[in-house]
Amino acid sequence: MAIEQTFSIIKPNAMKKNVIGKIVDKFESADLKIAGMKIMQISEDLAKEFYAEHKERPFFGELVSFMTSAPVAVMVLQGENAITRNREIMGATNPAEAAEGTIRKLYGDSVGENAVHGSDSPDSAKREIQLFFESSEILNT
């Protein structure tokens, strides 16, 4: 199995629910380590760049507005098969369809406000990590 890094965001709705620690515990309990973490307010420009692949979709403006509406926690998670494991821990994009005990089932409100984001591939993880972190902010734990 490969040790890899992935990117995760605790979104504004989960931040407002004050469940950061509960979400981080889900990752750590699954042997994913926090290699970098910070709380920040995403700017409109950064949100647009981050979600550029969705810019032609009708929900793009709503997504940018939501992600810039309140602070978020961004993380670099590290561990064996971190990308796949993170996505399993998060659950299905639609909280109503997510498995019991997953982050999105527990804390998501809707498809658009589903509590967390996680990279879907090694290429996405690399791009997303570089958007939010300087290399000096990431520790190989």
Overview of the structural elements:
By secondary structure, the protein is an alpha+beta fold. It has one domain (3-137): Alpha-Beta Plaits (2-Layer Sandwich), CATH 3.30.70.141. It is 39% helix and 20% strand. It contains 7 helices and 4 strands, in the order βααβααβααβα. The chain has a 4-stranded antiparallel β-sheet, sandwiched between helices.
Task: Show the helix and strand layout.
Layout: E1 3-10, H1 12-16, H2 20-29, E2 33-40, H3 44-50, H4 60-67, E3 72-80, H5 82-90, H6 103-107, E4 116-118, H7 122-132
Antiparallel strand pairs: 1-3, 1-4, 2-3
Task: Give short descriptive properties of this protein.
141 residues; alpha+beta; Alpha-Beta Plaits; 4-stranded antiparallel sheet; 20% strand; globular
TL;DR?
The chain is of the alpha+beta class and 141 residues long.
The CATH homologous superfamily is termed Nucleoside diphosphate kinase-like domain
CATH topology tier name: Alpha-Beta Plaits
Q: Number of helical segments?
A: 7
Shape: globular
Q: Give the overall pLDDT as a whole number.
A: 96
Order of helices and strands: EHHEHHEHHEH
Assembly of the depicted chains: single chain
Approximate strand percentage: 15-25%
* Rg over C-alpha atoms, rounded to the nearest angstrom: 14 Å
What is the terminal-to-terminal distance? 17 Å
